Amino acid sequence: MTKIHDSKSMVSEQDIVNVENQLSIKLPDSYREFLKKYNGGYPQPDGFDFADGEDGSSVDKFLEVSDSKNEGLINYFNTYKERIPKNYIPIAKDPGGNLILIGINGEKAEVYFWDHENEADDGDVPGMQNMHLVALNLDDFINNLYEIEI
Fold it and tell me: Which end of the chain has a smaller Cβ tally under 10 Å, C or N?
């Protein structure tokens, strides 16, 4: 079973509504509940595979509702919103500078891995070419994390 360590102070429904209003987005219910329960943190275990079984990565840290430049959800969204497909938001990062995204604004709340090495060129509209489906929903994503053997 996955445990989340070092999560930040709990956030309220109003905190989440404030984030949604500030970013003009609607978060999926599953992610709203995750933020209320954990608000960031390091999962253990942390490894995951892509849905097609081809590859995978690990979660370095879940993003949090805070003013943190390095782990803040709002900061990450504003930094990457022109680089990731519309209707997705970063929820975590991997150790290599890639992101884990979830669908927002009524999009299916599927979890994707976003590969920064293959992102759209400057000026191009970001598409799904560098996105890899990881899980059909957040609960499946978290429940399927596993210990990576070294």
Answer: C
